[in-house]
Backbone:
């Protein structure tokens, strides 16, 4: 795949946007009326998506905490970060290790506006790139101004690859991981295909034929881990991954339509 921007990238405030719809589902305020209107239609048909949105954010926080505390990672690259509504990647990473450096990448101007309010710990650093993350070489070159790519990095690609066809998404992730150092982590999650999700997807497609977010099969999500080693428990519903020590897997976890994994580069 070439480093060229494909038409159809949705950053217009006059068209529903998945980051803002996700933000609304997570209880955030950074969205437009047309995002809220579409979200209400989608949640009316498939209310479980609100839980999935919250689980995605919780997974982001568990991953950031885990790779820093348990994996010794101090550099995190968060692609398609969306609009933070909680502690975010940097909040969790710098709480565990204040010197952590985090680069966020997104192409939505709403995200850029929010990113200007993010505050780093004095010992660490946060940098935001308003960039199409399909421009792999450009993104990594810019990120290298903050991150040392010769050292392990945690790459987070959470609930964002549905903007691309499955094979293209897996190729894109592989292009990133191929340039990262041994010992780097990859976290991926996305919405899996179920009858309810597919109905919701059709609502989105009707509102934005070019920008509709596409659900995945579990195999298509797993394909993003090419050349990497999946860490236990492998590809699973998000509430089953990185369950805090001493806690049980929550009831109903298997019903979550957000699936993902944490992997490491050998």
Residues:
């Amino acid at each position: 795949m070439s480093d060229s921007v494909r038409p159809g990238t949705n950053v217009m405030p006059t068209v529903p946007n998945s980051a803002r719809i996700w933000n609304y589902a997570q209880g955030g305020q950074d969205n437009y009326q047309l995002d809220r209107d579409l979200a209400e239609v989608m949640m009316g048909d498939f209310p479980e998506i609100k839980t999935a949105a919250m689980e995605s954010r919780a997974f982001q926080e568990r991953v950031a905490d885990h790779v820093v505390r348990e994996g010794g990672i101090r550099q995190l690259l968060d692609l398609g970060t969306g609009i933070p509504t909680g502690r975010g990647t940097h909040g969790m990473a710098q709480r565990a290790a204040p010197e952590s450096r985090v680069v966020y990448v997104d192409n939505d101007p709403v995200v850029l506006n929010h990113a200007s309010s993010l505050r780093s710990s004095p010992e660490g650093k946060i940098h935001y790139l308003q960039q199409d993350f399909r421009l792999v070489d450009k993104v990594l070159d810019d990120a290298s101004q903050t991150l040392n790519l010769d050292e392990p990095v945690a790459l987070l690609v959470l609930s964002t690859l549905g903007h691309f066809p499955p094979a293209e998404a897996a190729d894109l992730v592989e292009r990133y991981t191929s340039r990262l150092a041994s010992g780097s982590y990859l976290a991926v999650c996305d919405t899996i295909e179920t009858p309810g999700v597919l109905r919701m997807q059709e609502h989105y497609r009707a509102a934005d034929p070019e920008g509709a977010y596409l659900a995945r099969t579990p195999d298509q999500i797993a394909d993003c881990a090419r050349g990497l080693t999946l860490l236990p428990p492998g590809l699973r519903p998000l509430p089953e991954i990185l369950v805090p020590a001493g806690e049980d897997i929550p009831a109903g976890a298997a019903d979550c339509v957000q699936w993902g994994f944490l992997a490491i580069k050998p």
About this structure: The CA atoms of residues 171 and 261 lie 17 Å apart. The beta strands are 75-79, 101-106, 125-130, 154-158, 185-191, 229-230, 236-237, 258-264.
